[in-house]
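#data-curation
PF: Archiving a pair of folding outputs for the training set. Convention for this channel: one message per protein, sequence first, structure tokens after, nothing in between. First:
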Amino acid sequence: MAHEEAVMGGKDRPEGISPTAVEGAPGLWRVDLQRHDLSIEGREVVQSRVEFTPDSPPFKHFHPGEEIICVLQGSLEYTLDGQPPVVCNVGDALTVPYGVHHQARNVGDGVAVELATYVVEKGKPLLTRVE
């Protein structure tokens, strides 16, 4: 399997996407809210608002630590390797364990938004795509 760090890019902003969001993949937009070292040596917390357009294609990826998700808007379907897909709606939370390959897709009609909190190894790419 080939792995690559997702590249942040930018283009015309779809309706409903935050004005400060940066496109991280087709139809997937991020607003980084905070990044801080933790009291656990070699770990940091990164918190982002992630926005998915209705046509955003899912892509498999992983993180160098845990991802704690809370859906703020819309409905998102998460698929974690070895588990059946689960749909999360507004207010639902999900934790993705360290290094687990997963993907998310918008299963609603409009923009879907999650608050993603990552507790990760400092100095490693936050997101690595799995081809």
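PF: Second:
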Amino acid sequence: MKKILLLSDTHSHIDDTILKYVKQADEVWHAGDIGDLSVTDAIKALKPLRAVYGNIDDAKARVEFPEHNRFMCEDVDVWITHIGGYPSRYNPRVKPEIYNNPPKLFICGHSHILKVMPDKKLNILHMNPGAVGKHGFHKVRTMLRFTIDGKKIDNLEVIELKR
């Protein structure tokens, strides 16, 4: 079983509260718009990190992290990308691959809107952790925490932080 902390849209912000949750996880996944790489360096100093770059990220982030990160976690096929859309409104850049080879868990960021929803037609669970950084229109900073045990995605929690 793996305990996952999922975050996105840090926009160069990292603080002790975020790092407290990082320490409690087995792995941290970042769905893009990292901002300064000091954010991912701080996370990597504590836990394994899987990340993608986002639309605000510079050339250094784009060298270190891919646009799409598809991997297996336990028995779950995971795909993380920054701009991916959501069920019935997938981004045209990812839509053909989702329909031809759907992952079990599809994760994106970008919108700053926390959203977890199933795609019943394709049997995909979609997650967007919202934004945990301080830059943007969101009123509450959010992250997601969950476990993956074999094929099971479970124990989903929303973590809300003050702006």
